[in-house]
Amino acid sequence: MNAFPARKQDEEERNTPEVEAAFEAVPEGVCEVISPSTQAIDRGKKMRMYRREGVEYLWFVDPAAQMVEVFRLDNERWSHLDTYEGDIRARLEPFEAIEIDIGAFWAR
């Protein structure tokens, strides 16, 4: 049972043309590099497409904000697992066995 009323986004999603998947086999995870010009598409249509296709993990990497957001697909809904910022080392799903140097993403 969902304790929240239907969101406006759910209604818009039903009325938005679907994005066609560009892969033949569904990957376990996808990493999207966010930019101001693509952010709306990445967080909207593409995120819905990945959910529809059954991608289990989604990372949004935002170089401008020096931030990584990690999502996991649970019961056909995205769960926001965590947000990692700045120059840190962390264990990001689905790679918890290794520590990832997030700061290396922003190094020049």
From TrEMBL:
Tagged with keyword Hydrolase: yes
Lineage per the UniProt record: Bacteria, Pseudomonadati, Myxococcota, Polyangia, Polyangiales
GO molecular function: endonuclease activity
Keywords: Endonuclease, Hydrolase, Nuclease
Keyword Hydrolase included in the entry's annotation: yes
Gene3D superfamilies found in the cross-reference section: tt1808, chain A (3.90.1570.10)
Name used for this protein in its record: Uma2 family endonuclease
The Putative restriction endonuclease domain, residue ranges: 13-101
